[in-house]
User: Fold this.
Amino acid sequence: MKKWLVFLFAAAFLFRLVGLDQSLWLDEAISANVAMQKGFGEIIRDFSPTDFHPPLYYLMLKAWVSLFGSSEISVRFPSIIFSLLAGWMVYRIGKKLKDTHFGLWASAFFLFNPLIVYYSQEARMYMMATFFIAASFYFLLSRRFFLSAVSAAVAFFTFYGALFYIGSAIVYFLIKKQYKKVLIFLSISIIGLIILSPLFYQQFIHAKIQLVAVSNWSMVLGKITLKNLLLIPLKFSIGRISFYPKTPYYLIAGLWTLIVFYFILQGGVKNKKIFFFFFMPIFLGVVFSLFTPLLQYFRFIYAIPLMSLLFVYATYKSPMRFVLLAGFVSAGAVYVFISAFHREDWKTLAKDVVKCKSVYMVYASSDAMKYYCKNIRIKDLSELMNVSEKEIMILPYSSDIYGIEYQRVLLNKKYGILHKKTYRRLVLETWQRK
Assistant:
């Protein structure tokens, strides 16, 4: 069994190395630029108040980049490590629940879940938070409630979405009338909230300003819509891959999602406690989104360790476990081996614009351009009213979110589009005055 465990984690590690040097996208570039350009104190004092996440991940990444550099591979490597550590915790949980065979399969479902594979290659905080929440649940099952609460608090210092897991634990203990455990989780959570409260208040004010100033900012945060609700089970099952035409995609992805969640429900019948901790954070997130938009599927990725355990309960010693795992591996392989499914290709785009003196784009969304083109002059898209050049380059990335009608402005100023070039969901436009 140990040989199979070593093989599983070695395969998962190698799987994550494929395409690891693909282009950083906007949010990853923000992480990289902060880690490169700011000191530890500056991250807390200058950057975090205008961000929407707690600072622990950025502080960790700063230390990492100081030792290993800031290439695409380097800034993504901590997420690989945390995803493997989370997989190890899932194995430990499964072993505690039943036996090593159970733990092995649970970790396999987690490590090769296509959404986990995708975010294992993302220079963001989600895998770090997933590890600490998986550790919290392991300690909870081990009846080491102080360590469980501390691990959950560390996850909260990494990613605010962990609050829904903490809330789920408190609700669970209240239902069970285990008030001493409620007190432990509440006490440590309140201490964490007090520590973060000055920063959180500044971020809350900034978020309110953004919602007013940026016309479609709620699109980014995730309004509670039928689409955003359905994307949670869909992406948990098939990952970030998508293709055209959409009708076959929705048929295939929808059918696979129904199969996956059938087995989740089957597992939930056999272990209601795990199903509660899988379902309740998502439910609390949906309720919270009625008041403040944040309903994006990736914000609940830390529920996938519980989902993986439910799979094994549903398929333990059944041939269906091979079918489910093969489906996950196939979806993950489509993403890692087919570059069309990789992230926005800022790297190639940067090579094409590096000879230009300037480019017009939304300045607030320019971190990826800054990462790859340190010398290019970036002009904010809102400055187009003052444009006078004969020929200009436009990168309309996120212009819809900021409500900038750049085309109308340029047409009014007698510009016509000369040509467009696409870089994996990025479009670079050249406009020329008539």
